[in-house]
Amino acid sequence: MPKRITVIQGHPDARARHFGHALADEYAKGAEDGGHEVRRLEVARLDFPLLRTKEDFESGPLPDAIKQAQEAIAWADHLVILFPLWLGDMPALLKAFFEQVFRPGFAFDDTAEGRWPKKRLTGKSARIVVTMGMPAFIYRWVFLAHGLRNLQRNVLGFAGVRPIRSSLIGTVEGMDEKQRAVWLDDVRALGEAGQ
Length: 195
Prior knowledge:
This protein is of the alpha/beta class. Helices cover about 40% and strands about 20% of the residues.
């Protein structure tokens, strides 16, 4: 069954193309070949400020770029989030993006004091693709994938997104072209399947 998919490229460098950009391109191509509709967000090209106060988070004005991002996320059945691992987590710009986008009224609704907030993104699924310099198994089993788990549980899951699947791509700097091509093919196949 065709899906509406929003691909969120979270690399903070807008000046250069990285392996994550190629992965996003292949996922989108595969999704389109599979009959899915695709929208794309490149976080590094969006203009938005950092949130600095609780009041800004709860009721501050939404920049136009964030409104458009919320529309693309609300439209989607499936989210694909790609980013490089920096200091064990997503880059700060991507975290700032999620803080802006996943505000009350969009990602969740506050309820009476002491009750769990209502999840507003229920019914959406996600795939997170993380590239890193270390071997992926070390990140997953030694460091317990803490940055990935934070995004899965405390951002996406808190808003009701599930299931959330992940693809960890390690030792990116040490890959040869053949190894990169295998990952590009794998991600393209995920796109075609809408996963």
